[in-house]
Amino acid sequence: MLLTVPLHAADSAKPDLAKATAAAREAAEAQLATARTRIAGEHTALLKDLQTALAAANSARDRLVAAEREATVASDDLAKRTREQERESTLIRQLADRAMVSARLGETQDRALQGRPPLERVAAALAGIAARTAALPTRLALRVGEEPIITRNGRQLSVPVVRLGEARAIAIGSDDNARGVLERAADGSSWLVIGPSLPAVIAADAKSPALIALDAAGSAAHQPGEVHRTLAEWLAAGRFFIWPIIAVFLIGILIALERVISLFRRAVDPRRLLEVAGHLARDDAAGANALVAGGTSPLDRVLSAGLAALGRPREAREAAVEQALLAETGQLTRGLPAIAVLAGVAPLLGLLGTVTGMIDMFAVIAAQGSGNAKSLSGGISEALVCTQAGMLAAIPLLLLHAWLARLADRRSQLLEEAACGVLGLTEHGDQVSNRREPPEVLA
After folding, report:
1. Which of 140, 172, 219, 374 has the lowest CB atom count within 10 Å?
2. Which pLDDT tens digit goes with each residue over 86-127?
3. Do 275 and 374 fall within a single domain?
């Protein structure tokens, strides 16, 4: 009985527990459904807000891109207008500068107008040009007078000069180098004759030209004129050193002429060796000696030395032929080293004259300055005359030396071949003579 009561109580409590559990489950499910509904609503609202924000951001980005594009276009337009304005300002300044230069207002007025607005400077320049134009009839008067000039060849002379106002100054000297358009030197100390020579017909008093060619445009004045230098002027420009160069050239030419005559007189005829070989083949040594004894060529003397040693030992024959060959070869090459030395000395003398002239010219520059470019160019031209003369002397001597050396080498080669031939012929003649000697009779 004690165990039956509790089990029964538990059985009676099971339905209540199940109901409570079911009620709690339903309540939890209801809360869960409510929460899900609330979350879904919030999610939908958030999506709408996000889409609205994205649309606003895209719209703002488009407006920003459009604003940047407009800013770029505006910046380019501003830069273009700035460049055009700077170009116009530069043109205005250049126009003002050109107007000031053309007006020639003077250094004082130029300094006063420095830094002023361009329009004010242009107005001042126009006023100056108007004043100069009004004074042109007086300033363009023709004037003739003796003035010192520097000619095209660097000489300083005093000649009649025609001045047509400030436009042109023309020298009307007696020669081409002292007649032409004049231009101030860089330092403004003297007049320089420039451009081509201008023809002139001068009256008897040499101060009233009847006809003068003018260069109003100024184009002919800066054309290079032809400078004609006579032989006497060329020799005078070379000063002292030109004469040793001429002496070296003449000595070299005389030696070369003597060598040409000697080499052609010492021609080597290989047919003479064939004639000697014919006599020796017939065992006619006397005829061979008679053939070469009266000859005057180097080949005759070499063959004569070889035939004179006929019958002697081979070493003696070789020594005799070699001695004759050396003597003739030395005669062929005699004087050629002297021509080579003279060909090398001539340009060195020219260089020495040029260096001496340049030293003298730099001494003049140190004493008087370097503003006179025309005079300096004339001095440099005179200094280089020595180098020119040295080259003119050396080139023909070098060519003659090469040609004469080739002739001498060719004749030396023929003599060496003839020497070898005569040694072979004399050895063959000795062998023939030995074969023809009678045998000795033994006692």
Report:
1. 219
2. 888 888 777 777 766 666 666 666 677 677 777 777 777 777
3. yes
Q: Are residues 381 and 331 in the same domain?
A: yes
275 and 383 housed in the same domain: yes
Angle (CA) 409-411-417 rounded to 5° is 105
Choose the final residue of a domain: 134, 165, 182: 134
Q: Is residue 46 part of a domain?
A: no
The first and second tokens of residue 223, run together, are 């054309």
What is the Cα–Cα distance from 36 to 43, expressed in whole angstroms?
A: 10
- What is residue 343's predicted lDDT score, i.e. its pLDDT? 92
Q: Which residue reads 């030109």 in tokens?
A: 242
pLDDT, residue 421, reads 67
Q: Extract long-range pairs of 285-290: CB within 8 Å, 24+ residues apart.
A: 285/310, 285/429
Tokens of 136: 């042109």
CB 370 within 8 A of CB 187: no
Report the candidate in 273, 415, 258, 277 with the shortest Cα–Cα distance to residue 338: 258
**pTM beyond cutoff 0.70:** no
Q: Please state, in angstroms and rounded to a whole number, the distance separating the CA atoms of residues 143 and 172.
A: 13
